[in-house]
Amino acid sequence: MTIRAISPQAIIWDFDGTIIDSEWPHFVASRIACEHYGLELTLDRWQARIGIHNKTHWSEQMITDHIGVPADLDEVLERTRAHKNEMTFAQPIRDGVQALFKRSHGAGIPMAVASSSPTTWVGPHLERLELSRFVSALRTRDDVENAKPWPDVFLAAADALRIDPSACVAIEDSAAGAKAAKEAGMTCVVCPNPVTAGQDFAHADLVVESVAEIPLDLLGLT
Predict the structure, then answer these.
(1) Is 164 a catalytic residue?
(2) Which of 16, 21, 152, 205 is catalytic?
(3) Which of 13, 47, 170, 222 falls between 20 and 30 A from 178, CA-CA?
(4) pTM across the whole model
(5) With 0-12 CB in 10 A as exposed, 13-18 as middle and 19+ as buried, what is 1?
(6) In whole angstroms, what is the distance from residue 179 CA to residue 5 CA?
(7) pLDDT at 1
(8) Which range (11-15, 98-102, 192-196, 213-217) has the least confidence?
(9) What is the average per-residue pLDDT within 176-203?
(10) pLDDT at 151 (0 to 100)
(11) First to last CA, the chain
(12) Is 37 within 8 Å of 198 (Cβ atoms)?
């Protein structure tokens, strides 16, 4: 899959699974929680939730819908959150991400982050990873009525930058995120992670295995 040179006026990043692989820790920790109750959580089943802000907690669909509400559910979910967070904080920035942040910033291309996670999750991670200084705007599910796969959060990010969405490139990791970016009118590059790799990205403009593989000339960075 190839696309012509884009020369965008802005780059808008997804966070979870794109900047760091926080998707795998979430899946692994949730799978262990399901195993505690004798339930199997497959990757195929988990993939259906990736990139989407669900109004119901994953445990309802994966646990309580099958066996009711266990007496120790709160305790198990607390352990699950702690395990997920511990693994997530150990995740490095994904290959090529930091370099592209620096290259884009040096070229004067503004960047935003558009996420279906809450600001209290994304903001501190960007600070911890020393990427927040490159980000001109952060928009999350807290800022919009409908998170991904609706386009609202991408549109909010473009509006914050005061740049037309059609002049933006979105970098995503999930099918739902790519759908949101395309419906916002943006060019979308997808860099899947191990959890999202099996999804259908036919609607994306470009799919790469690593952000480092995005041709710089496509972004006007040569």
Answers:
(1) no
(2) 16
(3) 222
(4) 0.89
(5) exposed
(6) 21
(7) 46
(8) 213-217
(9) 94
(10) 98
(11) 20
(12) no
Residues making up the chain, counted from first to last: 222
Cα(38)–Cα(35) distance, integer angstroms: 5
DSSP H or E run through 207: strand 206-207
C-alpha–C-alpha distance, residues 120 and 52, integer Å: 17
152 is catalytic: no
CA dist., res. 43 & res. 158, Å (int): 33
Residue 69 carries which DSSP code? -
Task: Summarize pLDDT for 51-73 with one digit per residue, the tens.
Answer: 676 667 888 888 888 888 888 98
Looking up tokens 């696309």 gives: 3
Q: Which of 150, 122, 128, 103 is nearest to 15 (CA)?
A: 122
Do residues 165 and 146 touch, judged by C-beta distance below 8 A? no
In order of their start, the domains of the chain are 10-21+93-219 (3.40.50.1000), 23-89 (1.10.150)
